[in-house]
Amino acid sequence: MLLNSQHQLIEYREMFFGSIDSATVYPREMLKVVLEVNAVAVFFAHNHPSGSSEPSEADKRIT
Description:
The protein has about 60 residues and is α+β, with helices and mostly antiparallel strands. It contains two helices and three strands, in the order ββαβα. It is elongated. It has helices at about 25-35, 55-60; strands at about 1-5, 10, 40. The protein starts with a strand and ends with a helix. It has a three-stranded antiparallel beta sheet, with no helix packed on it. It has one domain (about 1-60). The longest helix has 10 residues, at about 25-35.
C-alpha cells in the first residue's frame, strides 16, 4: 500500500508472486514503485501459506 503525506492510499499494488513455499522479493523493485508514485509512507505485507505466523529466516533477512 502506497500512501501520501496524509496517509491516504495512493495505490495498492501486488508486487511479487511465488510458489507454495517461497517468493523472490527484490527491494530495488519495491523502491522503484515507491519513488514512481511519490509515496511518503508504505505498508508491506505477505502471507504464510503454511499457516504459521512465525517469521522465517528469509523474512528476517529481507526486513
